[in-house]
Write a structure and sequence with these properties.
Elements (H helix, E strand, L loop, with lengths): L1 H25 L15 E4 L4 E3 L6 E7 L4 H12 L7 E7 L4 H9 L5 E5 L4 H6 L6 E5 L5 E6 L4 H8 L1
Parallel strand pairs: 3-4, 4-5
Antiparallel strand pairs: 1-2, 1-5, 3-6, 6-7
């Protein structure tokens, strides 16, 4: 009886380990994806307007953020207050949680090159492999990935990178 119980426990542990390894390999959050081009996407703003890759003609700074993340909110404020130094760039803030706070941010920072968009079901986040908040992607006008940053980034570093 003890021997069969030990075999059962060992079997269950083995199955659990195999499942965990499989999950880690398949989970888009488990590792960053190496991408070179901005994939196609459909995102919506707080008013329900649909945006896709073709709607942005400039180079792009895309920031995945969470409204509950202080680093994210600091990043948003830093980029917005320096928008004039980011000539030639559309700044696209993307959240996966469509909330009142996102609406407030969108209404607070109105500029023709600033966009607050919602990634329903984390589709673009998964395609890009954005693991952390904030995650910042810089894409050229050709939609080629120029740079990726995980975590908060001083504005001076970003300005040095794009200038």
């Amino acid at each position: 009886m003890k021997k069969s119980l030990a075999v059962l426990v060992l079997t269950l542990i083995t199955i659990l380990l195999v499942f965990m390894i499989y999950y880690i390999i398949q989970n888009p959050y488990a590792k960053e994806k190496s991408i070179t081009q901005l994939p196609e996407f459909d995102l919506v703003d707080c008013d329900g307007n649909l945006y896709s890759k073709g709607d942005f003609c400039n180079s792009k700074i895309m920031v995945f953020y969470n409204t509950e993340c202080d680093y994210c909110l600091d990043e948003i404020h830093s980029l917005v207050t320096n928008i004039e130094e980011l000539k030639g760039y559309d700044v696209i803030f993307i959240t996966t949680k469509n909330s009142d706070h996102s609406l407030m941010l969108s209404n607070s920072y109105i500029h023709p090159r600033i966009f607050f968009l919602y990634d329903n079901n984390e589709v673009l986040k998964n395609k890009l492999g954005a693991v952390n908040n904030p995650t910042i992607f810089i894409f050229a006008t050709s939609n080629k990935l120029d740079k990726r940053y995980n975590g908060a980034l001083p504005i001076s570093t970003l300005l040095d990178e794009i200038n």
